[in-house]
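Running co-folding for NAP.
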Amino acid sequence: MAIVLITGANRGIGLALVKKYAQTGATVIATARRPDVAGDLSRVAEDYRPAVEIHQLDATDSDSVLALARALEGRDIDVLINNAGVLNSYGDISDPAHDWAAWQQVLMTNTAAPYIVTRALLAHVRRSGAGKIAFISSSMASSARAPGGAYPYRASKAGVTNLARNLATDLKKFGIAVGAYHPGWVRTAMGGEGAAISVDESAEGLFERINHLSLETTGVFEDYQGNAVQF
Ligand code: NAP
C-alpha cells in the first residue's frame, strides 16, 4: 500500500489530492499549517478513516519541518508531493505588491521550502525503494512563454522547476524519480472562481501523471494531462 505525503493539504489542490489518493487505497500523510482549523481536511480524514493522517507542517518553519521528519522516523514515504504554495500578485513591474517582503515570502514558500522539506524527508523516501517526488510548479514557470507580470511567483516557480530537474539527476542513484507539474488553471483560492478546471479534475490528472513517473521519465515538466511544459 503506497504511503503519500502531501503539503498544503487542508484546501485547494492539496485537499483534492488527499481524497484521490485515499480513494485508491493509499495511506495519506496530509499536512497543514494549522490542523486545528483544517475543518475540510478533518472531514475528509473522517470519511476515509483510517487512510488519512493529519500532521502539522509549516513548510517555511525549520522547527516544524524537523518535527515532522522526527514524527515519521522509521516510516517509508513512497510519494512526496510538494504542493503548498503562495501567489502574491499578478501585477507588472509597477506593482508595489512586489516588495522585499513579498519576494521573501514567495521565494521561501514556493522554492526554498520544497527543497528543505525534501531534504528533511529524503531518508523516508529512500526507504521506499522506489520513491517519487512531485513538485507542483506552474506553466507560469516557463521562460520560453514569458508574458510578464507576477514576477515573484513566476521566478519562484521557475526556481522550483529547476530544483526538480536537478534533483532528478542527483536522486537517480537512490532510485528516486522526480517530476515538476503544472496542475492546470484550477478553481481554488489561488486560481479564482473563473479558472478552467475543478480541483478534482486537476487531482485526477496529477494522480495519473505521478503514477506514470519513473526513472525513465524522471526530470519531466508536464501538465496534469501529460503535455510537456516548456522550460
Ligand atoms: P490554495 O488553494 O491557495 O492553497 C495553497 C495551500 O498551500 C494551502 O493549503 C496553504 O495553507 C498552503 N501553504 C501556503 N504556505 C504554506 C506554508 N508556508 N506551509 C505549509 N503550507 C502552506 O492554492 P492551490 O491552487 O491549491 O495551489 C496548490 C499548488 O498549485 C501551489 O503550489 C500553486 O502554486 C500551484 N498552482 C495552482 C494553480 C491554480 O490555478 N490554482 C495553477 C498553477 C499552479 P493555508 O491554508 O495554511 O494557507
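Result summary
The chain has a mean pLDDT of 98.
The pocket of NAP is lined by residues 7-8, 10-14, 33-34, 57-60, 83-86, 109, 136, 138, 182-183, 185-186, 188-191, 195 (CB under 6 Å).
Job closed.
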